Amino acid sequence: MIETIRLSEKAKTQLIALKRRTGIQHWNVLCRWALCLSLAEPTKPPDENIPSDSSVEMSWRTFSGGHDEIYRSIFLCRAIDDGVPTKPSALQQYFRLHLHRGISYLSTRDLTSIVDLLRLAASKRARGKVREVA
Q1: Distance of CA 125 to CAs 14, 41, 83, 133, Å?
Q2: Structural domain tally of the chain?
């Protein structure tokens, strides 16, 4: 499915700011939060051409932090729910859309620590905006 994740220069800049504000030093941790935040939204991310113009690149294994089956399953369920074709190129593009939307969402929040991320997740859950996986 997805083997390598490449970020845009804009996403890299946003992640650098998030790393500085939150103290979370690893791209993959912030990217996992970003993906989950985007997947929790009921709408599909807008279709756009996102360049891979930064030096930030990671493998799926690094992104998933050893939990690749969990992230793969959650992502595939959402893609199927949204009618995304399961061919690799379509899934790669859909993943990039979710990841970059999530990074943008995180960058617009007033996050200064991991506690703020937990509060954000808890508030989305309390408002019923987190989708249940059957």
Answers
A1: 24, 11, 24, 13
A2: 1
